[in-house]
């Protein structure tokens, strides 16, 4: 059981470039989330999904897009990267029976 | 609107000493409350949660937290700190168990002195 996996671990982007952060889970959880964590701050919710085909905006969705074509995958797309998107990005799922969130190891993104 | 405030961005204690990490919340209805721990270069891991059952909640690694409605607090404690407890700790509040409305505090970095 791998849990929640994220790729890549690190990435450096130039301003204006685009990329997709991958998130995959093997726990068959319906709920999935994308957070960003800035230094000295808590986690901010970017987007979340309550099941395949259903996504919704969180607290800070601007500059990002998501899709959820399968239960397992929840990619996060950055279009036209900006320095303000420099952050650590975490994907998470929710065990609906346990009410516990399970986090991936994170992707550290730098935009210069 | 719900919110959570963690008092102290950095707490340092000696090994073997009491650990106390403070968390106050604001919520218009009874909340769900969580403490998460983040070790360096890792994701967050659930320590414990309060979901309106017992007010004293025991978690992993010897941590516990007490829900005090009158003080709107959910402080995290451990009687005796261990070097392996050094990490970042996050308090979080949610009005719903779906976690789609979880709000995280800004975190408290716990350092342990030998």
Mind explaining what this structure looks like?
The complex is a heterodimer of chains A (about 110) and B (about 110). Chain A has about 110 residues and is an all-beta fold. Chain A has no helices and 11 strands. In chain A, strands 2, 4, 5, 6, 9, 10 and 11 form a 7-stranded mixed β-sheet that branches. In chain A, strand 9 and strand 10 form a beta hairpin. Chain A is globular. Chain A starts with a strand and ends with a strand. By secondary structure, chain B is mainly β. In chain B, about 0% of the residues lie in helices and about 55% in strands. In chain B, the strands form 2 sheets. In chain B, strands 2, 4, 5, 9, 10 and 11 form a 6-stranded mixed β-sheet that branches. In chain B, strands 1-3-8-7-6 form a 5-stranded antiparallel β-sheet, with no helix packed on it. In chain B, about 35% of the residues are buried. Chains A and B meet through strand 5, strand 9 and strand 10 of A and strand 5 and strand 10 of B.
What is the compact description of this entry?
The complex is a heterodimer of chains A (112) and B (114). Chain A is mostly beta strands and 112 residues long. Chain A is built from no helices and eleven strands.
């Amino acid at each position: 059981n791998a849990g929640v996996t994220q790729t890549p671990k690190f990435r450096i982007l130039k301003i204006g470039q685009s990329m997709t952060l991958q998130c995959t889970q093997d726990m068959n959880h319906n709920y999935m989330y994308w957070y960003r964590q800035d230094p000295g701050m808590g986690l901010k919710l970017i987007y979340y999904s309550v099941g395949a085909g259903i996504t919704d905006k969180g607290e800070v969705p601007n500059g990002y897009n998501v899709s959820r074509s399968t239960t397992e995958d929840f990619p996060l797309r950055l279009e036209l990267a900006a320095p303000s998107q420099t952050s650590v990005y975490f994907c998470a799922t929710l065990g609906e029976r346990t009410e516990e969130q399970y986090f991936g190891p994170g992707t550290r993104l730098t935009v210069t | 609107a719900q919110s959570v405030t963690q008092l102290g961005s950095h707490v340092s204690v000696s090994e073997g000493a009491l650990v106390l990490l403070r968390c106050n919340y604001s919520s218009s209805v009874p909340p769900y409350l969580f403490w998460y721990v983040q070790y360096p270069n890792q994701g967050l891991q659930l320590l414990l949660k309060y979901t309106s059952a017992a007010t004293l909640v025991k978690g992993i690694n010897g941590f516990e937290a007490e829900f005090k409605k009158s003080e709107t607090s959910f402080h995290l404690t451990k009687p005796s700190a261990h070097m392996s407890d050094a990490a970042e700790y996050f308090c979080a509040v949610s009005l719903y168990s779906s976690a789609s409305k979880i709000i995280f505090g800004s975190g408290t970095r716990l350092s342990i002195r030998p």
